[in-house]
Write a structure and sequence with these properties.
This protein is α/β, with parallel strands linked by helices. Helices cover 30% and strands 23% of the residues. It is globular, with a radius of gyration of 20 Å. About 8% of the residues have low confidence.
Length: 319
Amino acid sequence: MARVLPAPVAHPRRPAPRAAPASRLRPQAPVTGGTGSLCSVPRLSEVIAALDALWPPERAEEWDAVGTVCGDPDAEVTRVLFAVDPVQDVVDEAVTLGADLLVTHHPLYLRGTTTVAAGHFKGRVVHTLIRNGIALHVAHTNADTADPGVSDALAGALDLRVVRPLVPDPSDPAGHRGLGRVCEVDPPETLREFAARAARRLPPTAQGIRVAGDPDATVRTVAVSGGSGDSLFDQVRAAGVDAFLTADLRHHPASEATQHSPLGLVDAAHWATEWPWCEQAAAQLDEISDRHGWDLRVHVSKTVTDPWSAHHDSSGAPN
């Protein structure tokens, strides 16, 4: 059975989502909205063009696999679902919702494939999508470095003030794009209090929040990076921040970081640090839909796709 968030975890800077009717017919022509305004049903190609303007595919890393995986460019799109992972539970949610487009942060085929046979779990995803007329689009590293990007959404979820990118994009003369964000904590708080803030504000997972460093140390500035961040320790130290919140911190990089300086480490689940982007991205598409007068409903998946399902304290450990 799919796990779902126990209650809506709204991005604090996202406007309240528009209510969607329980069922609706797909209009084949422009329709009149409740206020008397004329709404139009966009084609998939139009929605994808809007998404590519937000997260240009050419800004993805060379090794990445972004863009449209499946879908008819001429198909009409009336419902869009945003999610972190293109797994079967999320695809089933899209089918139940009646979505025409699923937008995920993580790629389905990051390393390519030679088959989409339904006997493989990824092939089943593709078959389910095509059978139900649902397109799949991916925005990964091109969304990580965007303005606003994944780490902006993470900072917003934590109620932090973004100061600058942690790793600026040299192609952005304005200095707004880049990987990670350097943020201010106002008012300052202890590392213990900051970790508790993360535990309260991020979606709950079995892992929870792990902390390394002096729990009573004062945190005034923090670097955040959604997803795996232990390749960024050099940049984090260069930024001179008091703490670093990210995901997937491995033993050796974390151990060396704590020996190198008094930097506090806050390690959350990968999925939890990237889920806020879904709320932010949905708000961006909502705004585009309103501007174009599209009859489009945008949703955010509440399916928990963090792979870990349980946590047990190590009561026999020496500490």
